[in-house]
Amino acid sequence: MTARLLDGKALAARLRAGLAERIAALPFRPGLVVVRVGEDPASGVYVRNKDKAAREAGFASRTLHLPEATSEAALLAEIAALNADAEVDGILVQLPLPAHIRAEAAIAAVDPAKDVDGFHPMNAGRLASGLPGLVPCTPRGAMHLLAEAGVRLRGARAIVIGRSQIVGRPMAQLLLAADCTVTIAHSRTDDLPGECRRADIVVAAVGRPEMVRGGWIKPGATVIDVGINRLPDGRLVGDVAFAEALPHAGAITPVPGGVGPMTIACLLENTLDAALARRSGPALSGRA
Ligand code: NDP
Q1: What's the whole-model pTM score?
Q2: Which domains does the chain have, with CATH numbers?
């Protein structure tokens, strides 16, 4: 048996095309502002990609690029101005921020209704409480991939490896909301291979190249590999040993071309959700 490949690039392209159609039919253009502080080179690439994808889909997108020396107070004042700007539906503060600015202060300053990254404690709390809200983009993209795989979620045993605020925890909450029986594993978990072998769905969000071995995968399981790791030879690999996992898994995401492209597509989806929710009432609807 060889696993079916879950093509995130193709799915993301379809999602973006669908969003573009919906936006073209609106009487307004939803607005997204990406805030970048300083000159982190990787952030420059990410911000350009987000802005380009947003414009292509028909959003009114712009980047607010502030100098490295911007104080925390000045950044919070800029965020407050964006919160008050009726034309702005989504605000994303690109991380990492310079060391003198507390990321948690910047995240908490964003209006939860415009928090298209889904990182604000209010949105995290709503997700943990089973309430609708804006959901972090990468887990939302992973849920789309599971839907694409056609896998049964209700009652299925899922393991999420990693418990970060941006991937592991929200991923586990979304799986729980979809009626999976969820195990959250982390660096202190006893017998990770054994925990994995019992899972019908494996989501790896660790940041360790090829840590999850093929023999850890239950036959027929669905594997969502969130990890993006660059090896010394320049190759990009996931957290799962892909070639080893292929004969075991029923379906698996490649790296690159799996979860990665879904993250930007879901940022756009969140921005449209935020725009529609803000203009039609207080209830947020950003759930995959
Ligand atoms: P973090 O470093 O914040 O979290 C990593 C998690 O993995 C922690 O919870 C940690 O456990 C756990 N972990 C570390 N070592 C082990 C181990 N040996 N066994 C089990 N668990 C372990 O990473 P992120 O959540 O931000 O990102 C995870 C990966 O996903 C990275 O490769 C990142 O590049 C990628 N990523 C990809 C995105 C995409 O668009 N595809 C978007 C975001 C991230 P503990 O809490 O105990 O320390």
Answers
A1: 0.96
A2: 26-112 (3.40.50.10860), 136-259 (3.40.50.720)
